[in-house]
């Protein structure tokens, strides 16, 4: 039986993640804060924090981290990684915080998991509410190129060092992308436990996201094709946004 998104995948998400990509993303975020924030930053909101990979890296840089995610499984791994993260199990389209932050991030396709423009707008509006004026909002979205040419209808198979396997099948019917994920986790007795889940993402045109940001008091300071701040091209797989709350 298929389970909810980020349930069976949670246990093998980290072993399959590219650590060097998180290091590059960390530099991108730190440079965005340094170059564009008009205010000193002490607390950062991580929307769709997952297992906390970036939250932990930012916490190590001295920031207080407020982390929102709707997967209990992903949050419990984040908790194992750090006691210091403030973890909140809510939807990024409908969340409530106890106070304000001076920067916000949302990384690795999290925005594409919002399946309606209304939810994207709600997420941006709420981020605006809790972000102090002058603070930056850094996030990424997948591009049409990535959905059509990198995922398409392809199937990928990954194996972790611990012997767990992920079979990842893709289906794309613009604007909806489905990821059909089957996991085989190796148990201590050597047998494999099978899990499956279907995740759904949605393509959002970059202009639409830019428009929603600008209508909600953000200025868009950069839309980059990579964490090295390279320009967007027709073959960019992601768009990396740096926006700032102006009012
Ligand atoms: C691809 S993971 C990225 C996790 C993390 N940002 C990272 O960089 O590793 C997407 C995360 O977004 C979370 N997510 C998806 N839709 C969400 C929603 N509506 N509200 C809160 N979290 C959501 C998932 O549970 C998952 O942890």
Itemize the secondary structure elements and their pairings.
Elements: H1 10-16, H2 19-36, E1 43-47, H3 53-60, E2 64-68, H4 72-81, E3 86-88, E4 101-106, H5 117-130, E5 131-142, H6 144-151, E6 155-159, E7 165-173, E8 176-186, E9 192-202, H7 206-215, E10 218-224, E11 238-245
The protein binds S-adenosylmethionine.
S-adenosylmethionine binds next to helix 3.
What characteristics describe this protein?
247 residues, alpha/beta, Rossmann fold, N-terminal domain of TfIIb, 2 domains, seven-stranded mixed beta sheet, 7 helices, 30% helix, binds S-adenosylmethionine
Number of domains: 2
CATH homology-level superfamily of the largest domain:
Vaccinia Virus protein VP39
**Main sheet specs:** 7 strands, mixed
Structural class: alpha/beta
Kindly report the average pLDDT value.
Answer: 96
Taken from the alpha-carbon principal axes, the silhouette is globular
Global Rg: 18 Å
């Amino acid at each position: 039986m298929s389970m909810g998104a980020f349930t069976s995948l949670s246990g093998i998400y980290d072993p399959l993640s590219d650590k060097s990509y998180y290091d590059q993303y960390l530099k991108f975020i730190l440079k965005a804060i340094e170059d564009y924030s008009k205010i000193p930053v002490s607390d950062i909101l991580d929307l769709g924090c997952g297992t906390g990979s970036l939250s932990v890296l930012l916490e190590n840089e001295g920031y207080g981290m407020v982390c929102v995610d709707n997967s209990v499984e992903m949050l419990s791994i984040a908790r194992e990684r750090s006691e210091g993260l403030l973890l909140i199990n809510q939807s990024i389209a409908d969340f409530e915080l106890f106070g304000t932050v001076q920067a916000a991030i949302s990384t690795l396709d999290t925005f594409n998991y919002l399946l309606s423009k209304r939810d994207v707008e709600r997420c941006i509006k709420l981020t605006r509410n809790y972000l102090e004026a002058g603070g930056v909002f850094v996030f990424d979205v997948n591009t049409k190129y990535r959905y059509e040419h990198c995922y398409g209808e392809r199937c990928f198979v990954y194996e972790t060092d611990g012997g767990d396997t992920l079979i990842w099948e893709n289906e794309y019917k613009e604007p909806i992308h489905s990821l059909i994920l089957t996991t085989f986790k190796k148990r201590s007795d050597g047998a494999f436990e099978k899990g499956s889940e279907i995740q759904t993402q949605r393509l959002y045109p970059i202009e639409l996201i830019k428009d929603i940001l600008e209508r909600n008091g953000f200025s868009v300071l950069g839309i980059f094709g990579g964490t090295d701040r390279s320009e967007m091209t027709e073959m960019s797989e992601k768009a990396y946004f740096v926006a700032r709350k102006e009012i």
